Amino acid sequence: MTTTHTNLALHLERHKYKRGMYKNEAPLDGRKRQRNHVRVLRRNDNAMVVRMYSTDILTAYEDGRIVIDTRGWYDRRTTTARLNEAFRFVPFHIGIGSWRVKSLNQTALRVNRTLYKYFDEIELDGEGNILSDLHAFDARHMDKHEIEGFREDIKESGFKAVFPVLAANVTDDQPRRHWSANLVIRYITQECHANDWPEIVARYAFRREWNRESERLTVKQTWARLMSDLRKEFMATSITDITSVPL
Predict the structure, then answer these.
(1) Chain centroid to CA 22: how far?
(2) What is the 3-state secondary structure (H, E, C) of 107-172?
(3) Contact criterion met (CB below 8 Å) for 111 and 124
(4) Which of 57, 71, 142, 246 is most buried, with most CB under 10 Å away?
(5) 236 near 144, Cβ under 8 Å?
(6) Residues 171-230: pLDDT tens digits?
(7) CA-to-CA dists, residue 184 to 65, 124, 230, angstroms
(8) Which of 75, 132, 78 is nearest to 105 (CA)?
(9) Please, what's the largest Cα pairwise distance for the chain?
């Protein structure tokens, strides 16, 4: 039976260094022997491992089990790239990367035709079945309480009432200061900042491109553009009960 352990052991025998600091270890990529920060070696417990710097990112046992552990570095591109390179020794389809699940980009493990939320020290058997307790995916959603409070605030400040007039009459010669979404929310929910509203509205009323004249949007388009920009500030993250996603 072909296992990750036997595949790594065969690679070690074919490509191991004969001398030097990493004698009896092998580069993960046999064609790039100078890239010795990611190596294949046999541990004292006879487990075969792929070691990146000082971390055993992939451990393979004789019974076919594998353990993946990045020690918290799984959100780094180089780590996931080296893991995906190591996965070519695994006898089933597996990969790690960022997938959009429930409106949120999340690090996930693709095993055969299923996505699982990635976590360090995740253990799989020789056929790709997850042996560890699964973790649930997160979800990104609108915080209804916060958005309702915001809608009430822009009514009370008077911004919503005067917006159609501002959007229809504002000119494109307003100052172009930097406005973060949080700052816009703070200013349009407080009547004391009403003098700054024309500048804020102008920011959304004109579509500016460096090689063209500014395009004036309709009142409806301006409102939609403003709300779209601010909506992300009212997003919340929660844990779901979803532990796997079929592909």
Answers:
(1) 34
(2) EEEEECCEEEECCCCEEECCCCCECCCCCCCEEEEECHHHHHHHHHHHHHHCHHHHHHHHHHHCCC
(3) yes
(4) 57
(5) no
(6) 988 887 899 999 999 999 999 999 999 999 999 999 877 667 788 999 999 999 999 999
(7) 53, 48, 8
(8) 75
(9) 79
DSSP state letter for 92: S
Q: Measured between alpha carbons, how far is 199 from 204 in angstroms, rounded to an integer? A: 9
Sorted by sequence, the CB contacts under 8 Å of residue 213 that are 6+ apart come out as: none
Domain spans of the chain, in order of start:
4-135, 144-235
Retrieve residue 72's tokens.
Answer: 């918290």
What pLDDT digit, counting tens, does each position of 54-71 carry? 999 999 999 999 999 999
* The pLDDT of residue 213: 75
Phi, psi (5° rounding) for residue 107? -75, 125
Which helix (H) or strand (E) segment is 188 a member of?
A: helix 181-188
Radius of gyration of the chain (CA): 27
Write out the two tokens for 235: 């997003």
d(CA 208, CA 187): 23
Structure tokens at 181: 């979404």
* pLDDT higher than 90, residue 1: no
